[in-house]
Amino acid sequence: MDQHRFTRMELLVGKSGMERLRGASVAVFGVGGVGSYAAEALARAGVGHLTLVDFDDICLTNINRQLHALDGTVGRPKVEVMAERCRAINPAAEVEPLKDFFRAETSDELLGRSYDHVLDCIDHITAKLHLLQSCRERNLPVIASMGAANKLDPTKIAVADLFETQKCRLARILRKELRRRGIDSGIRVVYSTEEFRPLGSETAACAENCVCPNRGDQLWSCTDRRVILGTSSYIPPLFGLTMAGEAIRSLLGE
């Protein structure tokens, strides 16, 4: 029955397209609300080689928006749970989960794997800047997620070069810092043109009482964050699905 697993995709892209996807190697950095949906969409499209990179474990507060977050998975590494899902979707795929944090010290190891495309779904600005700069220097095709938090309108999601985006605060910061590094074009992003929503007076309970599991071996907890933004159940997933779609079209030569 395995010949039927990707029949509907093959009807769309043809046998040669499926061969391209089966032979493609794609890395997803950050497997949270955006990255978990991106990874699964790539797996369901028949991408044959996936590398999933994330240092974090699944937290109870992830349940409203992250694909892998369920009662039975809280406390487990995000990359391991997503790798299991992707292998269950496509047992023939090579899926490598790497529980690691992308930074200057790990850049060469994590990017030196002959990827055909990179998806940047991380939200740590310093790490994100280094990842995007490193991909440009290596001529690695990359698409990046901009700010998916604090958004409600799915019709405002768009795809553009980072340096042509509007109304996204994260994109503005990245543009400024990347220009300082000599980069002023060539980074595709998914972003939202929705106007900034003023933060309400409510505060997240985890800002004072973090419930994330295994915090002892992590880099920070919710109590270390200055602001915890609200996130919907559908905007981060739509960002991730859009990123996967753009990467798949790129792999197909469209």
Report on the structure:
This protein is an alpha/beta fold and 254 residues long. It has a single domain, classed as NAD(P)-binding Rossmann-like Domain (Rossmann fold, 3-Layer(aba) Sandwich), CATH 3.40.50.720. It is built from seven helices and seven strands; from the N terminus they run αβαβαβαβαββαβα. It has helices at residues 7-23, 35-44, 78-89, 104-111, 125-137, 169-180, 235-251; strands spanning 25-29, 49-53, 94-98, 117-120, 142-145, 157-161, 188-192. It has a seven-stranded mixed beta sheet, sandwiched between helices. Strand 1, helix 2 and strand 2 (49-53) form a beta-alpha-beta unit. Helix 2 runs parallel beside helix 3 (78-89). The radius of gyration is 18 Å and the shape is globular.
Attribute tags:
alpha/beta; 13% strand; 254 residues
Can you give me a brief rundown of this structure?
The chain has about 250 residues and is of the alpha/beta class. It has helices at about 5-25, 35-45, 80-90, 105-110, 125-135, 170-180, 235-250, and strands at about 25-30, 50-55, 95-100, 115-120, 140-145, 155-160, 190.
Structural class, by secondary structure, is alpha/beta
| Strand proportion | 5-15%
What is the total number of structural domains?
Answer: 1
Biggest sheet layout: 7 strands, mixed
Query: Separation of termini?
Result: 30 Å
**Overall pLDDT:** 91
The CATH superfamily title: NAD(P)-binding Rossmann-like Domain
- The CATH topology turns out to be Rossmann fold
* Overall helicity: 25-40%
